[in-house]
Amino acid sequence: MKNILLVAAREYKQIASTRGFWVMxxxxxxxxxxxxxxxxxxxxxRNSAYVLVDQSGQYEQAIDRRLMLNxxxxxxxxxSAYVQRWGLASVKPDAVWAKGERWFSDAQIxxxxxxxxxxxxxxxxxxxxxxxxxxxxxDPPPYLRAPLPAGITTTDGPDAIAAGxxxxxxxxxxxxxxxxxxxxxxxxxxxxxxxxxxxxxTNGAPNTTLVDNVRNEIxxxxxxxxxxxxxxxxEAAAAITSITTPIDLSAPPQGSGREQVMIRSALPLALVYxxxxxxxxxxxxxxxxxxxxxxxxxxxxxxxxxxPADLMYGKLIGLGAIGLTILGVWVxxxxxxxxxxxxxxxxxxxxxxxxxxxxxxGAMLFxxxxxxxxxxxxxxxxxxxxxSLQDAQSYLMPVIMLIxxxxxxxxxxxxxxxxxxxxxxxxxxxxxxxxxxxARLGAGVSVIEVLGTGAMLAAFVVVEMILLGxxxxxxxxxxxxxxxxxxxxAMIMGKHTA
Amino acid sequence: MAILKLDHVVKxxxxxxxxNNLxxxxxxxxxxxxxxxNGAGKTTSLRMALDIIRPTSGAIEILxxxxxxxxxxxxxxxxxxxxxxxxxxxxDTIVYFxxxxxxxxxxxxxxxxxxxxxxxxxxxxxxxxxxxxKGMSQxxxxxxxMVNSPRLLILDEPFSGLDPVNQKVLEDLVLEMAQAxxxxxxxxxxxxxxxxxxxxxxxxxxxxxxxxxxxxxxxxTLPGRLTLTAQNDPSQLPGIASAxxxxxxxxxxxxxxxxxxxxxxxxxxxxxTSGGFALRGFESHRxxxxxxxxxxxxxxxxxxxxxxxx
Lengths: 498, 310
Hints:
By secondary structure, chain A is mainly alpha-helical.
C-alpha cells in the first residue's frame, strides 16, 4: 500500500506542478468570476426605446398602459419568486405576490398596479428581508417611450417620420433615461384603414413582444370602435373587447412539480458533464505519463522495486485525486459563485442542494468514481499499449467515440424523458451506467434500479481492473510495434509470456 | 553463501528461447561479471532475478529467497535501458527511488544528498532532469540505484553511454561499493571493464552458459601464445600447436607460436633450454578476456532477443 501511495503522490505532484494543470483548474472559476464582474460593470442597458405617433389620438394612452402592464407582469413574477426565496410572504399575506404563484391573471396585474406596482411591493418588503438577502433589484421597463427627435412633428406623414427616424433606427435615440436603441417606431394615421394602415419600422432586431403588444392593443380598440359603430354603447363595446377567457390555471408552487425534477437533477446532470470533462482531461494526462515512462525507458527501474499492479493502482489513485481536485474546485467555485451572487443561478443551485436526499450524495459519489475508474483504466491500458501519442490516437479515437456518442444522445433523451426507454437501457450497460444513472437520479430512480445497476457496475469495474490490469502489466516492457489482435487477446487473458 | 543462484533456468518467448538451461551462482562479496554479446540473454536473466519477468522453468534464488519485490530494499538495480522522469528534480528522483525501496524520507534524502555530492551534481540538486546532460542523467540513475546502500547491486551494461571520465567515476564507485561489502553483479559486452573489475565471470552465448569461473580460469581455456626469436623453426618442439614466421633479420626469425592446450609457456622454455634450441627472444602473451570471449563465443552474432522484438 505504501508503494501505491508513493506512486499516487508522485503522479499527483507531477501533474499539479505543471502550468497546464493550473490553467485548466482555474480557467472555469476565473471565467465565472470575470463573467460576474463583467456582468456587474459592463452589463448593457436592458431596455430599448419606441416612438409612437398617434395622429388619431385614440391609441396612444392605451398602448402605453398595455406596455406598462406587461412590464408589471414580468416584475410581479420575479418579485413573487424573490418573496418565496427569502420567506417574505408574511409581510403582506393577501398581496398577489405573496401566494407563490407564477401565473397571474390580468385582474391580478391590475390589482398589483393599483397597489403601487413593483415599486410599492419592493418598498414594502425590503425593510423585512433577512440580513443575507439582497434588496430586490427592480428591472427598468423593457421599453421606454422616446419623444420624437427634433425635426419631426406629430403632424408629419409616415414617409417624413420614416426619413426622420432612419438614423435613430440604426443607432440610438434620446429617452428620459438616456440614450437607448430605437427598437420600434409606430405611426397611427388619423383614420386606420386598409389604404392608410398603421406603419411600423423596426431596427432589424424587432422585439416580437413589443410588436404584439402594440398590434393587439390597436386591434382591441379597433374592434371596440367597430362595435360602437354597429350600435353598442362605448361601455358595452369596451366590455366585449376586454373579454378574456376565464382560465383557472393551476400550476405547482415554485420549486415543485416538473421544476422540482429539474432542480433535483441540476447537480447530478452537472456531474455528468464534469465527469466527462475531468476524465477526458486527466485521462489524457495519464496517457501521456505512461507513454513518457515507456519511451523514457524508466519502467524497468520502477518495476524492480514495485509490482506492476502497485504502479497501476498508484496511477489510478493519483489521477483520481487530480480529478477530484478539479471537480472540487470547479463545483466549489460554481456553488460559491451562485450562492454569493444570488439571482437565477442561486434559484437553481440552492434548491438543488437542499432537494437532494443524503443517499443521493452517496450514489452520486459512487457513480462518479466508478465512471472515473472505468474510463481511466481504458486510458491507462491504451497508454501501456502505445509507443507514442500517435499510436495512442489510433486506439483513443474509437474508444472516445464509443463513450461520447451514446452519452450525448442519452443526455438529450434524459432531459426530455428521464425515465424513457433509452436512458433506462443505458443504465444497465456498465460502460454507460455512471452517466445514465447520474443523469436520471434527480428524476427519481427506484431503489432496486440503483442497487441493481450499482452492483453490476461494481462487478464490471472489478472485471475491467483484472482484464485491463493484465493488459497494462503485459504491455509495460513490451517494445516494437503495437500488438496484433491475437497477442492483444492473449495479454487480456493473462496468457502472454512475461 | 550464494547471493544469487540460477538453477537450470529457461526462459522462452513464444518459440524463441532467450535463456537456455542456465545455472550459475554468485557468492556474496566481490564483483561478478555477467558477460555476453548483445542478445545473449543477460538482461533477460537479470530481469528474472528481479522478478520483473518470470522464468519458463528452473529456479532462482536471490539473497537466499525467491525473487520478489520484498527483496527490493536490499537490491540496487541499474537497467540497461535507462530513463528518468524528465520533470522531476534530481534530488526528488533519487529520494523517490529510495522510498520505493522502503527507505524513510529523511534517510533517503540524506543519502541522496551524499550521492549527489559524490557525483559532482550539487549545483544541479534541484534542477529538473530534463535540463541535465546525458552523462549527468546517467549519474542520477546510478545514484538512484545505489541510494539504498544495497547488499546486492545489479548493473546492466552500466558503462554504455558514459564518457571515459564518467566511466572511471563509475568504476571507482563500483569498487567502493564492493569494498564496503556490497556484492556487485554487472553485465557487459565490453570486456575491458570486466577485466578491470571482476573477480569471477559467467559468459553467455545465445542464452547458454559457455563459461563460469575466475578470469585466470577463463584465460586458461585459450591456448598459450608466444613470440619467439629463434634461428630454427620451433614447430617440432614438444607442446607447440603451430608456429608462423612473422619476420626476422641476421639469421634470426620471429615466430608467432600457439601452444597446445594445457602446455604452459614455462614448459616450452624448459624444453628449449634442455634441447639446446637457440633462442634470442621469448615473450609470453597473456590472453585478454576479449580473446577468451572471441574464442568461446566464436565471433558469431547473437540472435536478436525475441523479447525485444515481440
